[in-house]
Structure formats: C-alpha cells, structure tokens
Amino acid sequence: MNDYGNPGASGDTRGLFRPGQGHAHEPRQAHPEEEARLRKALCEIGRLCYDRNLIVGADGNLSARLSDDTILITPAGAMKGFMEPSHITKVDMEGRVLGGGARASTETGIHVTSYQARPEMRAVVHAHPPHAVAMTIAGIDLQMPVIPEVVVTIGGIPTAPYATPGTHELPDSIRELLRCSDTVMMKMHGSISLGTNLMDAFKKLDMLEHTAKILYLAHTLRGGLDPLPPEAVERLLQTRKLLGIDTKNTFETRCGL
Ligand SMILES: [Zn+2]
User: Which domains does the chain have, with CATH numbers?
Assistant: First the structure.
C-alpha cells in the first residue's frame, strides 16, 4: 500500500450503494486519521494533475471513499492545484453534503455513479487531459489496440457520447461503460479514472494522456493509425493474465467493441 491507499476498504459493501438506502443521518464514523490522510492525498493528487496539465483553472474533480462509505470530494469551483485539506467537503452515497461542509463539486454525480457501478473502487479522478479530449473531438477511437503496454494494463478506452456537464445526463451516459473499464472518456469533455486508491486512479489518467499524446503524434506524422493484429492482442492478454493485472479491460469485457 502506498501513501494514498485506503485501509479498512475490505468487505462487501454493495448493499450500501443502492439509491434510497443511504446512511446520511446515521453515518458510521471513519477513523479521523484515515480522513486526514485522504484529505491531504486529494490535495496532493490535485496538485499533480494541475502540474501535469491534466486540469487547468477550476477544472476537474477528485474524490476518495472512506471506510464508512462517505465520500471526500473536491468543492465546487476550487482550483485543484491549490487546495488545503480543510477545503475538501464530504458527501454521502447520494451526493448530499454532510456536516455543513462546502458545496460539493458540480460533477458529484459522476463520482457517486462511479462508486455505485464499481463498489470495489475507492477513488475517482475526473480531469480534462488535452490530447485525450482532442482525440474524442477528432473522432479518433481510443479503443483501438495500438500500444502493447496499454493493452496489458488499461485495455481499450471507451468513449461515452456527449452529455451536458453538470446534469444527470452525464452520469447516465457513463454508468454502463464504468462497469467494463476503469478508464472512460466523455466525448468533447474529459476523462474518468477509477482506482483502488487515489494514486491508482491518477496513474490511469497519466497513462491515458500519455497514450493519447503518442497516438496524436503518430496520427499527425502519418495521417492514420493501424491497430495491432488480433493475435498480438491475444498474446498481450495472456501476458496480462500471467502478471495478475486485474483492471477491467475492454478487450476482455468486450465493452464498446
Ligand atoms: Zn469536467
């Protein structure tokens, strides 16, 4: 476990995620140390996203789920590169602010939907990685298997159709894709990456943007991209199995293909 891990995350808590069955009024308390650590980690990963140009201004939002199934989330309008732990707000599994904290991110629905779709995940990062978003605007499919490392680790990256930010359309548009991939693009908007902890979610975002950058360069140089042949993809999936990598991979789930 690294500094951004989330102890106490074991156990089947699926029953807690059904709409209408939240525990907003009688929450179990997460350990104060756990909460303090995750507040700090949200600020540090926010800074990292900002420094790596994955978000600018007040873009994007980040969250981490505590062991009592409440969610720490970045507040609406905050510059994610310059947050203090006290700025972070807390919501329940239906997105209601707890404890009189600051107004939660306008995209809280993305985070709640992510945790509902993937109960084993403990962190969600939504960003606007420029090359990856440009690919969705240009209509270049990030599902295409081109780079071996990405086939093994992340898999194809599905893109949800355009939906209006800040509305229920957006979480509705990604719900099914999140079940079959840890990393999803929202057309003309941004990315969502899910992780077993914040660093894991950040790692997938970082890899997504790096991949998009390489594909962008290749596309610019040659005017097109060729996928790896199916038998090469099959061999990479065997390697993945041998390495014990268990992210949701679209080449296995067949999601969006
Ligand atoms: Zn956004």
Answer: 14-253 (3.40.225.10)
